[in-house]
Amino acid sequence: MTSRTDVANIIDHTLLKPEATRADVDALVAEAKELGVLAICVSPSMLPITDPGELVVATVVGFPSGQVKPEIKAAEAAQAVADGAAEVDMVINIGQAVAGDFDGLEADIRGVVEASGDALVKVIIESAALNDEQIVEACRRSEAAGAGFVKTSTGFHPAGGASAHAVSLMRETVGDRLGVKASGGIRTAEAAEEMIAAGASRLGLSGSAAILNSL
């Protein structure tokens, strides 16, 4: 079993519900500090965070559909970084991956990477909506575009969230050159440990407390 501290050290404690309020985000930050997790991930409208303490602040761009013009994604990323985000989790244009337009997909990612400056960019490929070949190529293009991480899911797609298979495939593709973030539907300590065993170096969790308390 992975230790509680080891798991806490790779958690992005997440609140991206559309109905979330500023008070909900304040509560998330307080809980994240209490749990000792690495980061919080919130909607860009909730930035800046008043008192993040030692927490890494992450936000999302082009969320959740990815069907946003590249220049809008880039502008959203630049604004998020200006508002204090140290990490930017962007959603690819999933339709581009399905259609095989990987040059367009890579350009979209590169625009966000360039607009994000020194901030770490994680690329959400929505793995449950893609086949294995599309997952592999999306990961390759994310690396080519300068991203620091590839990430399984938004958690909002009807196709589902993270799977150990997708995480393993993503890790196999990017090796140790990029991080792999598993997110979407990870609700138990067993599921978290399965993702870590498959190669995840970061976990996006909304139910962090329940998972950590069961370790």
TrEMBL record:
Cross-referenced Pfam families: DeoC (PF01791)
Keywords (A to Z) from UniProt: Cytoplasm, Lyase, Schiff base
Function: Catalyzes a reversible aldol reaction between acetaldehyde and D-glyceraldehyde 3-phosphate to generate 2-deoxy-D-ribose 5-phosphate.
Subcellular compartments: Cytoplasm
Pathway annotation from the record: Carbohydrate degradation; 2-deoxy-D-ribose 1-phosphate degradation; D-glyceraldehyde 3-phosphate and acetaldehyde from 2-deoxy-alpha-D-ribose 1-phosphate: step 2/2
Catalytic activity: 2-deoxy-D-ribose 5-phosphate = D-glyceraldehyde 3-phosphate + acetaldehyde
PANTHER family: DEOXYRIBOSE-PHOSPHATE ALDOLASE
Family of this protein: Belongs to the DeoC/FbaB aldolase family. DeoC type 1 subfamily.
Official protein name in the record: Deoxyribose-phosphate aldolase
Main location (coarse class): cytoplasm
Enzyme superclass (EC): lyase
Xref: InterPro entries: Aldolase_TIM, DeoC, DeoC/FbaB/LacD_aldolase, DeoC_typeI
Active site per UniProt: D89 (proton donor/acceptor), K151 (schiff-base intermediate with acetaldehyde), K181 (proton donor/acceptor)
Organism: Brevibacterium sediminis
The protein's Enzyme Commission number: 4.1.2.4
